[in-house]
TrEMBL record, chain A:
One of its GO terms (molecular function) is oxidoreductase activity. SMART domains: CO_deh_flav_C. This is Carbon-monoxide dehydrogenase medium subunit. It comes from Muricoccus roseus. Keywords: FAD, Flavoprotein, Oxidoreductase. Residues 1-169 form the FAD-binding PCMH-type domain. The keyword Oxidoreductase applies. PANTHER family: XANTHINE DEHYDROGENASE SUBUNIT C-RELATED. Pfam families: FAD_binding_5.
From TrEMBL, chain B:
Residues 2-78 form the 2Fe-2S ferredoxin-type domain. GO terms for molecular function: 2 iron, 2 sulfur cluster binding; metal ion binding; oxidoreductase activity. It comes from the Bacteria. InterPro entries: 2Fe-2S-bd, 2Fe-2S-bd_dom_sf, 2Fe-2S_ferredoxin-like_sf, 2Fe-2S_ferredoxin-type, Beta-grasp_dom_sf, Diverse_Oxidoreductases. PANTHER family: OXIDOREDUCTASE WITH IRON-SULFUR SUBUNIT. It comes from Muricoccus roseus. Keywords: 2Fe-2S, Iron, Iron-sulfur, Metal-binding, Oxidoreductase. Pfam families: Fer2, Fer2_2. This is Carbon-monoxide dehydrogenase small subunit.
Length: 263, 167
């Protein structure tokens, strides 16, 4: 790791000012950026630690939405009674990603700003039709995700909170890589004020919606409704862990399990 | 150079570090607490697990400056001053929950956090799931799981003393 200056601002405005330097990078839980810096994949002039900013913390219900501060750690989200009551699938997701030690440090905002194609939260955010609140604006989930490690966030723009509409039903299922435990293929399904939405993660270069499954579940909310739908492997990832055809097969299997998980 | 003030095993320390200094480097190289091991250095193996403000973390994946103001506990901080082992350490000894011993400090630190978070006790399956972030290259998991299952009974006060291992 190359050395860098370290700043720990106590307000959002201070953090935004420090991040005006194009070579400065934010650090939240550090579970992705620190391994990346060890590999010298980046050489920031400064790290701006977001953990001292009260505005980025807290989980609360606001009407028909659950608002999760970007600095909320996975372990906090998994144990939060508000999340567990309103969106149990999201609480289970937060408690079943990475490992205990990663969950004690990693944050939802960090994961969603990074948008790793094999991360879990992008499926929940796209599947629930979340709204991304930033230091500048609000961005809908359909506009936020822009492919592998790419989001609508501009340089210096910070995610401050994620708002999830409370669904009637939501479920998630994933097949994990047996070694890395990252998602090989996952499917998040939701029904409620967001309509019926099906989001697929892990399988493609970025999280995407499965329109055919959405239509089938809108007509008949059951695992059987998606059992016959085949995902095309054409745009999916193939690598040493699994071919695009295998991942396409998993989309159907995980979609069935996700509907069962939702109940 | 940034200065970090933290408490390690109850002792306050103020140490000059670089921005890039990892917590595990501060512990091992500056404070000479070499009980915390570095296995993979890629936040997978868990040999470096310590407690920061009571939560288990991989000390190879947190900067020393991020731990500024924190209370850190390492494997050296578990036993009583008179040498009496922590119940988890005692269970690892009684159940022979180690072979080469390299993963042991991290296993013990993770296990203590795990037991603390499950006051009603864990099944064997839950213990195995909870140890996901700790790898043992001797694949000695069987006795590690038995040790944790026995230790949780003592830690939560359901038994006065550790159940003896079968001969």
């Amino acid at each position: 790791m190359y050395d860098f200056a370290f700043h720990k601002p106590s307000s959002l405005s201070e953090a935004v000012a420090l991040l005006a330097d194009p070579d400065a990078r934010p650090i939240s839980g550090g579970q992705t950026i620190l391994p990346a810096l060890k590999h010298r994949l980046d050489r920031p002039s400064a790290l701006v630690d977001l953990s001292g900013i009260a505005e980025l913390r807290g989980i609360r219900r606001e009407g028909d939405r659950i608002v999760i501060g970007a600095m909320s750690r996975h372990a906090e989200i998994s144990r939060d009674p508000t999340v567990a009551a309103a969106i149990p699938a999201l609480a289970r997701m937060a408690g079943n990603l990475g490992d205990t030690q990663v969950r004690n440090r990693g944050t939802m905002g960090g994961s969603l700003a990074n948008n790793d194609p094999a991360a879990d939260y992008p499926a929940a955010a796209l599947g629930l039709g979340a709204t991304f609140v930033t230091s500048r604006r609000r961005i809908g989930a359909d506009d936020y995700f822009q492919g592998m490690f790419a989001t609508a966030l501009e340089p210096g723009e910070l995610l401050t909170a994620i708002e999830f509409p409370v669904p009637e039903k939501a479920g998630y299922a994933k097949m994990r890589n047996p070694a890395s435990r990252y998602v090989m293929t996952g499917v998040f399904v939701a029904r409620g004020p967001m309509g019926v939405r099906v989001a697929v993660n892990g399988a493609g270069p970025g999280v995407f919606r499965q329109a055919e499954m959405e239509a089938a579940l809108a007509a008949n909310w059951s695992a059987d409704a998606v059992a016959g739908i085949r995902q095309s492997p054409d745009t999916l990832n193939g690598d040493i862990h699994g071919s695009a055809e295998y991942r396409a097969h998993l989309v159907t299997v995980m979609a069935k399990r996700a509907v069962l998980d939702a109940g | 150079m940034p200065s970090v003030s933290l408490t390690v095993n109850g002792q306050p320390h103020s140490v000059e570090v670089e921005g890039r200094t990892l917590l595990v480097e501060l512990l091992r190289e500056k404070l000479r607490l070499t009980g915390t091991h570095v296995g993979c250095d890629t936040s997978q193996c868990g040999a470096c697990v310590v407690h920061v403000d009571g939560e288990s973390v991989k000390s190879c994946t947190i900067l020393a400056v991020q731990a500024d103001g924190s209370a850190v506990t390492t494997i050296e901080g578990l036993a009583a001053p008179d040498g009496t082992l922590h119940p988890m350490q005692e269970a690892f000894r009684e159940y022979h929950a180690l072979q080469c011993g390299f993963c042991t400090p991290g296993m013990v630190m993770s296990a203590i956090d795990l037991v603390k978070k499950h006051p009603d006790g864990m099944s064997e399956h839950e213990i195995r799931e909870g140890l996901e972030g700790n790898l043992c290259r001797c694949t000695g998991y069987h006795n590690i799981v038995k040790a944790i299952a026995a230790a949780q009974e003592v830690i939560h006060g359901r038994r006065e003393t550790l159940a003896p291992a079968e001969a």
